[in-house]
Write a structure and sequence with these properties.
Elements (H helix, E strand, L loop, with lengths): L2 H21 L1 H7 L1 H4 L7 H20 L7 H24 L10 H15 L7 H5 L2
Helix pairs in contact: 1-4, 1-6, 5-6
């Protein structure tokens, strides 16, 4: 894949992820709570998580116009998705009642990380930050 094609796909991926984080997380907690909600019902904790992901979605939409200017946001999204998904995977494996998360939010976060890492490999490292100092 050429750099030009990769950049085009990255912009579109950021738009889709942004809209998905803003408008998709909450409906998933209603439609498939066993795969997306870690507490019974719509808890205060869940509202906080939804707010954080909606905010991330707004910033991903902003970054979609010039992703090369937002590598730290892409890096954060990649590595926080890996950390969050990994933590949830361990918890789902340790507590059988959370097993459905291994088919819901856990792979969703790993897919987000993999897509962004593939489309923006420079965001995987912190080398780009050292070059600007």
């Amino acid at each position: 894949m050429t750099d030009l094609v990769r950049a085009k796909w990255l912009r579109w991926t950021l738009r889709v992820l942004g809209v998905g984080f803003i408008f998709g997380v909450y409906p998933l907690t209603i439609l498939w709570p066993s795969g997306w909600v870690w507490h019974v019902g719509q808890s205060l904790y869940l509202q906080m998580i939804i707010a954080i992901y909606a905010t991330l979605g707004v910033f991903l939409l902003v970054a979609s116009s010039h992703p090369e200017r937002h590598l730290s946001l892409l890096s954060f999204t990649i590595w926080s998705s890996i950390a969050h998904g990994g933590t949830m995977a361990v918890q789902a494996l340790a507590a059988s009642e959370h097993g459905p998360h291994l088919y819901g939010d856990v792979p969703a976060l790993f897919i987000v990380a993999a897509l962004l890492a593939w489309l923006s490999p420079e965001a995987l490292t912190l080398r780009y930050m050292r070059a600007s100092t």
